[in-house]
Amino acid sequence: MSWLAPLLLTPLLGQEQPPANAPEFGGSSPIGLVVILLLFIALFFLIRSMNKHLRKVPPSFDPPKQADTDGSNNADSGEP
């Protein structure tokens, strides 16, 4: 089975490459520019949405401390 790969790839590898100064070599298309611009627009909206969600996050996830108004000692308060 290992002899099959070189036989199949030889016609592809033996083809001549176009010259470097040919117009189709290394050129970018306007479609590529549109795709890049759409990606930047999507990134802008994703960052804006992330900032909106991060503003809703509380500064601390610790439970709020409640004042002991009845004067009794609560054993599960965690304070010494």
Helix/strand/pairing category: mainly alpha
The share of residues in helices is 40-55%
Secondary-structure element sequence? HH
Oligomer: single chain
> How many strand units?
0
Largest sheet: none
The proportion of residues in beta strands is under 5%
User: What's the overall average pLDDT, rounded?
Assistant: 77
As residue ranges, the low-confidence spans are: none
Mass-distribution shape: elongated
Which helices and strands appear, and what pairs or packs with what?
Elements: H1 4-13, H2 30-55
Q: What do you see in this structure?
A:
- With 80 residues, the protein is an all-alpha fold.
- It has a domain at 27-55.
- It is built from two helices and no strands.
- The protein has helices spanning 4-13, 30-55.
- The mean pLDDT is 77.
Fill in the keyword field for this structure.
80 residues; mainly alpha
Task: Summarize the entry for a quick read.
The chain is mostly helical and 80 residues long. It contains two helices and no strands.
